[in-house]
Every structure is written in structure tokens, then in C-alpha cells.
Write a structure and sequence with these properties.
Blueprint lengths: L10 H25 L2 H54 L5 H82 L4 H13 L6 E5 L2 E2 L8 H9 L12 E3 L9
Parallel strand pairs: 1-3
Antiparallel strand pairs: 1-2
């Protein structure tokens, strides 16, 4: 049935549809309550594991950068040693002290380059070791959280499996009820449900009081509600009010 046909229904039809929709939504709420915080816990665990994996990849990239730096420093050391050997060989052929001292300074400079490169290599290796420890810690955390995730997913899948058929039927009935209600009224209903702590937007009169906030309803207003000629809301909480016999008289 098309939504545009909702305008063809009477106020009484819409009130009954609203009340039935409320009952359906309340049952769906109970199913969601049964699931509790499990969907959120599963999402949080998945996000944490994804974050840890991202962290590990970042650490690995940093370690690779340090390893490349070590390779560069080893090449620098090899080059410095080659130059040192060259300069020492040239010292045997110098013609004066000036040339000898110049070559000696080059040898000393290359020695300092080697010392500095070796110092950097030690630092890089220490950082790589720290990174490896961080990877190990994160990997252990992933293993723990994966076990928790599997357990939570198992619990959730069991509950979903037990309630899936019921929820699918409720959602079909939900759509059927919504076709009777015009868009403006349905929007108001959903807004009321969202604002109500217990999710009740449509309530019966109970002992001359609103079934939502329990405020007293004047006799004449109760008569108007029972006539089902217009949508009437509670003056105190704004919930849509229906008379106690609305379902029985429409069965």
C-alpha cells in the first residue's frame, strides 16, 4: 500500500495504527535491550584492533627507515675506511711535512666520520629494538582483543539468530502500520519516541491518567479521546493519548 493513501484513512484508523506501531516498536526495543551493549562492544573491539594494526604498520615503517639509515652509515664507514687506506698509502710518498700533515688531517677526519657513523648505528639499533618491543606488545594486545571480539561476536550472533525471525516479522508489521499514518504524524511520533526515556510516544489512559507521565486527565478530555475524532496529546508530556478500549473495539 502506498504512503499517499494514508490521507484516506480516518483519525481512528491512524490512532489504532499509531498504537499498534508503538507496541511493535516496544517489542523491537526489548530485542535491542536483550542484545544490550554487545553491538557497541563489538564495534569498539574492531576499532581497537584496527587501530593497533595501523600502529604496527607505522612502527614497521619507522623500523625500516632506521634499517636503511644503518645501511647508509655502513656504506659511509666503508667509504671512510677506503679513503683512510688511500691517505695512509699516500703518506709514504710525501715530499714534505706539510703534505704529510694534510694527509694526517684527512685520516683523522675519516676516523671521526667512522666514529660518528658507528654511534648513529648503535642509536638506530637501539631504536629498532624499542620498536620491536612495541610491535610485540601491540601484537599481544591484538591477540587478547581478538579473543574478546570472537567471544562477543559469538554472544551477539547467538542472540541475533534467536531473534532474527521475530524481528523481521516485527519490521514487516512496522512498515504495514506506517502506511496508514501520514508523514507529518509519523515524524511527530518518532520525535516523541526519541525524546521519551522509555520510548513510549503513544499511551493509553490508565486510571484517568496519562499512561506515560501519570498526570490526571479531565473527564471531558477523556470523552474527546474516546471519540477518536482527532489526535489528542497529553498536556504535560506531549504523548499521544488513546482510550483503553481502542484495540478491543477494532479487533
Amino acid at each position: 500500500m502506498k504512503k499517499s493513501q494514508a490521507a484516506e484513512y480516518t483519525v481512528e484508523d491512524k490512532l489504532l495504527a499509531l498504537y499498534k506501531l508503538q507496541e511493535i516498536d516496544s517489542e523491537i526495543d526489548q530485542i535491542n535491550t536483550l542484545r544490550g551493549e554487545l553491538p557497541l562492544e563489538v564495534q569498539d573491539l574492531e576499532d581497537e584492533i584496527a587501530g593497533l594494526n595501523t600502529r604496527i604498520e607505522k612502527i614497521k615503517s619507522e623500523s625500516q627507515s632506521f634499517e636503511m639509515s644503518i645501511i647508509d652509515r655502513n656504506e659511509l664507514i666503508a667509504n671512510a675506511n677506503t679513503l683512510t687506506a688511500k691517505y695512509k698509502k699516500q703518506q709514504d710518498k710525501v715530499r714534505n711535512n706539510r703534505e704529510y700533515e694534510a694527509l694526517m688531517k684527512e685520516v683523522e677526519f675519516q676516523g671521526l666520520e667512522v666514529e660518528l657513523a658507528e654511534k648513529h648505528i648503535r642509536e638506530f639499533k637501539a631504536k629498532i629494538q624499542q620498536k620491536n618491543m612495541s610491535i610485540q606488545t601491540s601484537s599481544e594486545r591484538i591477540s587478547e582483543r581478538t579473543k574478546d571480539l570472537d567471544a562477543k561476536k559469538g554472544e551477539l550472533d547467538k542472540i541475533v539468530g534467536e531473534t532474527k525471525k521475530e524481528q523481521e516479522q516485527l519490521m514487516k508489521s512496522q512498515l504495514d502500520a506506517e502506511t496508514v499514518i501520514d508523514d507529518r504524524l509519523l515524524t511527530a511520533y518518532k520525535r516523541l519516541r526519541g525524546n521519551a526515556r522509555n520510548g513510549l510516544a503513544v499511551v493509553k489512559i490508565d486510571r484517568d491518567s496519562c499512561g506515560g507521565c501519570f498526570s490526571k486527565i479531565p473527564p471531558q478530555r477523556q470523552v474527546d479521546i474516546a471519540s477518536r475524532k482527532k489526535i489528542i496529546v497529553c498536556e504535560h508530556c506531549g504523548r499521544i493519548l488513546v482510550d483503553v478500549n481502542i484495540v478491543e473495539t477494532n479487533d
